[in-house]
Amino acid sequence: YDSIFEKARAHIKDPMILGAIYHHRIRMFVVFKKKELLATYLPLVADSARRAALQTSLEEMQRLNATLFPEFVATTPEGEEITNEDLLGKYTYIDFWATWCGPCLLEVPHLKELEEEYHGRNITFLSISTDANEDIEKWKRMLTAREMTGLQVHMDEDAFEAMKPAIDYGGIPR
């Protein structure tokens, strides 16, 4: 990604367009790199409104870093309930997705690669389906068809709605 944006910076001189590109890049990049990206790109954003929005994002990330993941109950395809307590003592990579989400499905091969890279380490890959309750069978079929690995769970719609404010939910994939 960095080389693409360096090329854009070399060829695009309009600070508003560059600001839009940087803003989009930071908002779409994976969470664990956002602070680093904000520190790098924030000074390059000429538009004060975009810079202020990015600064607010940085402050929100700092707030969220001091927040525990909210308690939850989700269900595996086999009907077993999974809660926060089941994940204690492990690093947990959490992916929110849905069967109807095209970008989510495009991420599946990359998630599988990441799971393979960290196989055997103290990390759980938790994929939480946000599909509607009536689409659980469709979700189960998708898991089989795409040979999805990791800990696959579905979260009840009401529970997911209640969780959104605590996780700074802005949409999926997340």
State the main characteristics.
174 residues; alpha/beta; two-stranded antiparallel sheet; 7 helices; 49% helix; 14% strand
Strand content: 5-15%
Q: What is the gyration radius calculated from CA atoms?
A: 18 Å
What is the distance, rounded to the nearest whole angstrom, between the alpha carbons of the first and last residues? 19 Å
Overall pLDDT: 79
Strand order of the largest sheet: 3-4-5
**Helical proportion?**
40-55%
Number of strands: 5
* Main sheet characteristics: 3 strands, parallel
DSSP summary: helix tally: 7
Q: Which blocks of ≥5 consecutive residues have pLDDT under 50? A: 28-32
Query: Helices and strands: which structural class?
Result: alpha/beta
Give the CA-based shape: elongated
Q: Which series of helices and strands comes N to C?
A: HHHHEEEHEHEH
What does this protein structure show overall?
- It is a single chain.
- With 174 residues, the chain is α/β, with parallel strands linked by helices.
- The protein is built from seven helices and five strands; from the N terminus they run ααααβββαβαβα.
- It has helices at 2-11, 15-28, 31-41, 48-65, 102-117, 136-145, 157-163, and strands at 73-75, 81-83, 91-97, 123-129, 151-154.
- The chain has a three-stranded parallel beta sheet. A two-stranded antiparallel ribbon has the order 1-2.
- It is elongated and about 55 Å long.
- Residues 28-32 have low confidence and may be disordered.
